[in-house]
Amino acid sequence: MTYSAQILTLYPEMFPGPLGASLAGRALAEGIWSCTPIQIRDFATDKHRSVDDTPAGGGAGMVMRADVLAAAIDHARAAQPDAPVLAMTPRGAPLTQARIRDLASGPGFTILCGRFEGIDERLFEARGIEQVSIGDYVLSGGEVAAMVLLDACIRLLPGVMGAPSSGDEESFESGLLEYSHYTRPIEWEGRTIPEVLRSGDHARIAAWRKLMAETDTRLRRPDLWERHEGARVQSPSGAHRKKDR
Prior knowledge:
Strand content: 15-25%
Helix content: 25-40%
Number of strands: 10
Shape: elongated
Strand order of the largest sheet: 2-1-6-5-8
Radius of gyration: 22 Å
Number of helices: 7
């Protein structure tokens, strides 16, 4: 079954954009996934096709209207009733690899791309929309963030990556950053591939990669390391045991 992505946007011409190239582009051409941009302005009710208005209580900018967006979402849900609806917003929950895997295992999703100062909060209350953030920064709109979400999901669909196991040892899959990679030539600008990777000893190589992943995560992402350590010392019952010293 084709993995279906509907994108509610003011700029449907942005899609598939970069997703029409490389792995995602081949998968799109092969029918593994589909991309359906939906113009939000088509659901406006006035002659100017207005989708926004001034913020209640005053302030700069404009706010996207709940009534217009609700009509667009209702249209998308009628076409794909089993798919979750997500809104790309810096106020959303941080996107994780675990959530990406959940989304990639489903039928697809509908993405709402916000613009201007934001979206009328009543929309989220009335339509049960999942708010998602790709990082602690602000973009001009949700379209680029939607592409990030789409790409992360599409690459996990069956038949997209060359080998099904290609994503198993990547960063975040085990709660750690991925270990360092090397390839030929063996020596480059005075730098040599670590001896262990040239040893042919698979057990040593696996142990070295595990150590590198743990070391890099501890140094570069102490937040990830703290969560990983917390999960590692938790027993199946949920009780914590003392860490090995």
